Every structure is written in structure tokens, then in C-alpha cells.
Amino acid sequence: MESVVIKRIPIETDLKNLISKKMFEDDSPILLEYLNAMNILNEKFQPMAILKECSLESTAGNSVLIGGHVYKSKILSHLLKDQQRIFLYLLTMGEMPADLTQIETYFVNLLKLPAMASAMKNLKKMVQLEQNFVKVGMVNPGLIQDWPIKGNQTIFETFGNAPQEIGVEMTTSCLMRPLYSSSGILFEDINHYCDCETCTIDACIGREALFCHTA
């Protein structure tokens, strides 16, 4: 299947939902800066993504063959063994506008991560509705124990030149540019898997479940 580009993914526009743990007075200067940053996010940022449906060709040991490319991870092999098709994805918040003041840049950066988590939830919801999945699971390189960040190499190889369409590139250290970009695999979650259970980043704004040592 060809890659599908989604040019605009909606994000949460209610500031209180994005910074629910922060309480400010209505006339607080900090709140006004947050409100301005929210306006900048809505006006100058366009979360985009690429999806590519792939057939799961085989799983054996710590190897998974997806779309003619081998992914090395025992956990990934276990999670996907009963799947017939999966969706590779790339998502990005895009580059920071160059015309922002230092203060605007600071507050926009504070909101970009929760905004990205909101965009990710909406991307999963799109796949769930279009594919009639009961639930969508997600797994990301670098966030499970035996699938390090260099797993991005295989994802980018599978996408070919498509990442250029949303302005995403991979660095020599397998990180992604722009900052606040994400990559991974979406699949129908029939076993109620949550990748948050295998991630030790406690402060993550997008956390949906506690870390579980036995996950």
C-alpha cells in the first residue's frame, strides 16, 4: 500500500485540558502567555502524519517481517504475532516558526508536547474508526526494552522518500527532526496492550498507564 499523508491532525484546543495540572488566576500574566502560545499553536502549527498499511509477513523469535523489512525485537514479535496487517506511522508537530519572541518560544515549547500527545490520540482514533478496530495499540522504537531508537532506520527504510512530504528526516543518531516528532507501529489491540506499561518516563504528558515491570 502507498503511504497516506494526513496534512492536518486536530489537537485539543482547550487550554485547561492541555495544562490541567496548572492552576492560574484569570488575570495571571502567566496564563496570558499560555493563552497566546495556544493561539500560536492553532495558527502556525499543523500536525501532520504519514500512515502506511503493511502486511505482517512472519514472526519468528525476535524477528518480525513487515513489508519486506525485518524488525528485530522479541517484544514486538510477541505483540504482533496474531496480526494480519499493521500501520506504520510518522507524526510531527513541524518546525518552530522563526518569528517568535524568546518568551513566545518558551511557552509554545511547554505546550508542544501535550499538543503532540493530543494529535497522537486523534491519529489513533482515525485509524480505529476507518478500520473498525475495537482498540488501537501503539509501539515505538526506543520505548520498549529490546527495540532501541535505531529501529527508526527500518521504519524510514519502509517509508522510502515519503517522510519528505511532511518535512521529517532522521539524523545519524536515528533521532528525528523536527523536534516533537514520533514514529512507530499502530495495530489492532486485542490483548489490551499499552506501551506506557513498558516505558519508564514517569513524567510523560501522554502517559496512559503506569510502568509495569512484568509488561
TrEMBL record:
InterPro entries: VitB12-dep_Met_synth_activ_sf. GO terms for molecular function: methionine synthase activity. It comes from the Bacteria. This is Uncharacterized protein. It comes from Acetobacterium woodii (strain ATCC 29683 / DSM 1030 / JCM 2381 / KCTC 1655 / WB1).
